Amino acid sequence: MVGIPGTEERLALAEIEDRLRRVRARFNLYTLQHNLYGLGTALALGMALLILGAFTLSSWFFSLAAWPLLTVLAFFLLFFLRHGIAGWADLNAAARRIDTRAGLKERLSTLVAQLTAGIIGKPPPSSLWPHLLTDNTDHLPEWEVKKVAPSRIPWSFLPFLASFLLALFVASVPLLSPSSESDPFSMANLQTVLSELPERVGQMIEDKMSLLPNSQDQWGGSSMFNDGDTRGAQKGEKGNQMQGEGREREARSLAALPEELQKAIRQALQGLPDKGRDQENQGTIPPRDRLALRPSDEQKKSNFTIAGQNLPKGKEQPASGLGGQRSESKGGPPSGAGGNAQAPDQGSGMQRLDRARLDRKNARGQFQPDSAQVPGSAGEAGEGGPGAGSGTDPRLFGNPANLGSGAHTFQLALDSTHERGEDSEGEEKDEGGVIEKSTKALNQRQSLDDAIRKAQIPPEYEEIVKRLFSRGESQ
Amino acid sequence: MSNTPAARAVTEFQETFHRIRSEVAKAVVGHDEMIENILIAFFAGGHVLIEGVPGTGKTLIVRSLAEVLNLSFNRIQFTVDLMPADITGTRMVMDREEGRREFVFVEGPIFAHILLGDEVNRSTPKTQAALLESMAELQVTVAGTTYRLPPPFFVLATLNPIEMEGTYPLPEAQLDRFFFKVRLTYPTHQEIQRIVSTTTTTAVPDLGPVFERIEAPEKVMALRQLVREVLVAPHIEEYVAALIHATIPAGAKYVSGTDPARVTLPKDEYVNRYVSFGSSPRGGQTLMLGAKVVALLDGRANVSYDDVDRVAVPALNHRLVLNFAAEAENLDPATIITRIVQSARKLRR
Q1: A384, CA 20 to 30 Å: which among A72, A203, A274, A435?
Q2: ipTM for the complex?
């Protein structure tokens, strides 16, 4: 090469250094991945053990075991950190690895050692230095980047993947188990979960994705924290809801059966008492009262309850009370007793959002008012504000003595919302589509329920039905 | 390979080495590895101790080498009554032409480029010491006057492992001054057949000298200088140091207890069990220089791990002092060194 003396030498060195840096980057990436996967394996296994311990050990033993486990995890963190730092290759280390892999007999590492020692711009350390450089240039084709440092996934990825899936499974077992299951990691439950894994996972995902908020109540939910009082309290609060939802689930699964089988089950159902519904009726209010509580078409429209707020006069009236009736005309006068009715599209965006949220709660059957809402007690549903509701309209609910807790109010809200969906689905679109989805789902549920109730089931399917109901009872 | 002066020098070294080997092989049947080891030591500037039973060609190898290299050659047969002055030379009263008498130094046989000390273990320790001092210092001091030995100076001493009665085994300190110790084994069946057929006729092997007589010493010294120009990476130096340390048994005397590197070195079980004293630092120098020659023979300007391993056995086997347990189990130092080299491969990272 013509030019400044030493130009050829420098060009050769630059090429070697460039390739060496690329190889080093690959080595370090691999090292980083390897250590991260190792650390991930340790953490995933540790998490799985912690979850397992939370369900299988008593709280005292869990506390005793958790700290050493966390210490071990911290040790692994430091170990892989140190290992990663130690394995981080500089140019000399990378050159040595290349020598080993490409069989260069330490040509490259000797050259790099001279370079890193600062040979550039100084007299050559030996008369053989040019020979070493040309020798390395001649051997350049023997250590292509892809050859000596191929892009590959570290072997530690496999244990990481396995441990991650294990941890995922351990974490999801309580979610996939029935809430009544006291020990989700018992062999029987694990076998059940494993045998029905695709269906349960699908259902769980469907529930998670759905706006209908009953996913936790179907499987798990309380299982994660089902020790002692917590479970009891949750059972007490949600008992009625779970029974109703359990039957809905049964109904949905029945609807998925073939037509002939459905017909047979319907026939069998006619000959059996509806225990779940009886219990529900016995536990809450008499059927007659419930029927009485069902609002008329006019009353159903007034079921959207939003707590009234004290706003200055002339500003937007935020809400109507439970007794506040929804007016069909915008800005119409309050038609409820003491409540200031307001059209859905009136008021601020927050008000409409609150209203929609409340409707969704009612539709789910989970709505529990913050304070007991006894119909007729003025000032509880909406207070303050000139247009605020002053209480529940007694005409709507009949005799207040028949209403006990807020759960009855929930039942009313569920039915009311459902029937509203049938009647005025177009109006719900104004609520941002949220109510529409809930209403459609409830319609579908209701139609399935009705279909089952009216169906005829032959005697040979009686056993199936009994088994279904006995399972429902156990749940 | 490019045509730079450095590359030409390397090529010239390779060619010279192979020419010497092929010429010596005309006279000596077999012993290829031994001859190569002797040549490695010669170009590294060391001396070689050859151990072998009588009649295996020790003297023939040395004589052939001297003839091929076209260097001055002397032979000393060591006996019990050999005196140091018989080796180094002595001052004698000489008559001058003008009638004056004065002491004149008469050079002994040691003043040669290549010296064969046959059965060196048969002389007294005093005579051995005279030889070994000149080997180390490359000079002779007689009556207070120091005389430099002509470079290159290369000693090949032979040891006869049998007939040990009346012999004086070389002490370890003097053994350490030999670069390599090679063992001449019995020739194979085919080699004996060739020896019988080629040495019992009137034909004499015609050994062509590689160098001209006048330029031979300078040429040899230039090649020796080239050997020292070979580049060594720091991790190779570490490896050599680790090998030397690995020959030292744990708990040996005269070992610094504060050496942090020792704990990380692989320590072979055999070393602890059978070795009393390990190699000296001179063994490390030997390893490095021998590895440099091997690297040049391979056409490289750098030393590799394999070069070091290649010369480990001849460089270290006379530097390990084995204990009685090793002798009882008839263990060879070469076996222990081979194990050390294998265990030290972990350091190749």
Answers
A1: A435
A2: 0.85
